[in-house]
Amino acid sequence: MPNRLGPPLETPLFDRIALIGLGLIGSSIARAVRHRNLARTIVAIDRDDATLARVRELRIADEVTSDLAAGVRGADLVILCVPVGACETVAKTMKASLKAGAIVSDVGSVKASVIAQVQPHLPDGVSFVPAHPVAGTEYSGPDAGFATLFLKRWCILTPPEGTDEAAIERMRDFWSALGSDVEVMTAQHHDLVLAITSHVPHLIAYNIVGTAADLETVTQSEVIKFSAGGFRDFTRIAASDPTMWRDVFLHNKEAVLEMLARLNEDIALLARAIRWGEGDKLHDLFTRTRAIRRGIISQGQETPEPDFGRRREDP
Amino acid sequence: MPNRLGPPLETPLFDRIALIGLGLIGSSIARAVRHRNLARTIVAIDRDDATLARVRELRIADEVTSDLAAGVRGADLVILCVPVGACETVAKTMKASLKAGAIVSDVGSVKASVIAQVQPHLPDGVSFVPAHPVAGTEYSGPDAGFATLFLKRWCILTPPEGTDEAAIERMRDFWSALGSDVEVMTAQHHDLVLAITSHVPHLIAYNIVGTAADLETVTQSEVIKFSAGGFRDFTRIAASDPTMWRDVFLHNKEAVLEMLARLNEDIALLARAIRWGEGDKLHDLFTRTRAIRRGIISQGQETPEPDFGRRREDP
Prior knowledge:
By secondary structure, the first copy, chain A, is of the alpha/beta class.
């Protein structure tokens, strides 16, 4: 995978790309599309006036509108970058304005639900290629985006059976041009994989931060002061966008609850090992988990810098 | 708090400091003591020959030995930097060699157990001032240490009742000189606070990484590939030293199990909210947890950089 996004294409992949929702992901796509010249025209659509004003100031789109139906008109690629719970409303509102032959895609962290929400509303001749770029930060909004957000990250496509192969290939080319590696799988498998690599970790992080804030025996001030012992790592993902994450859990209910149940079984075993002083069991687990970290680093999904490369001062 | 460690003292705080265990913490203390001239002589004691050889190469101590009794002789400060489960053996082995008036301290992540292990073996005239610098990385060994590890971090002292006040003050000065803020509390309260800010987060991280590795429905390769969705944050602390952490859990059993039970109650409530589609409850929690993150950043225990400041490439 390249170390940089690469130069602008001589011929754009698309004539007109409409982005619905200019938050962290939508605004990062806009920046990367602009940088690589992937579209002749970028249309930014958002229902929030403050966001639209900011997008104009940032000059990351060619056209800016709050009118969803007008915004998607004539676009040959429309990407939904909204919380997954909003997808059906968006699909219904825009369906009559979609151009024949257009590709509709999204960036949602849940895929089966998005397909169920969007697919029934799309007219014949429009292809739906659901996508999930596995990338992000804990910040939200158009200022949080940056062009290299997807560089060296995976983007998962989950086209429903029967999706036009040419449309899938165009989306593969699109995400490759944003610097991502692309993998195709079913929506059902995606939702299971992401439940364990993303959704349950977020849920656990939100939970542990909430529990710590509510203790009677330890003050919030103490939790904050002594957070460098490990707790602060959890606060990063527990600072992610509340609406986005509420929707993820509501729309990937079964897989999240299944993975959570599995996690709870393992926690019970671990608690038992602690209660009974079974040090070998603990040591074995703690040794095995190191190998996973090494795998993540060797596959380029993380750097080996200690403490996430948090800045060290000179002595 | 200063941005740097500060210049060497004109007059060292101690004549002879003996460090027992030259891993991440012990070797960081050695480097910081040298940098600030806190001791005329630094003695490095370790039972591992490879560690001792490396300490010699790194030139971070003035004397290097595997002989614990000989190493502590004449020291006016002796700091145990070993896994908490090893403290009693160390105390027994060194007790006859301790100098009258010496201060013994430690850096263990658990305090009540360390006091119970060490205190009974110390001769009259030797003060025990247990300490816990809340700082570290996921790496181990003498090469992992660095002089600024404790800068802007908290160090908690938990002197047993009746400890000589002058000895406590000297240890406060010592840790301040390493760049830390110092707080004094009881060992019992320390163990409760750290259970939630450090021990349970580590346990949960080890557990979630272990669970992910053992799933039948999702491959280990998929877990690694798609770890940027949140999972990889957990793998950092789940890569911490297995022996150190085994000992932490075995020696802070009650507080860890109590906090874990509390966490499990909260997880059950959250799972119920997901099952019943109670989006407002989820959104409320996810909003509250953001405030804790802001507190940690505003108190200087974390920087505001997105994604822990993981390196971004230029486009």
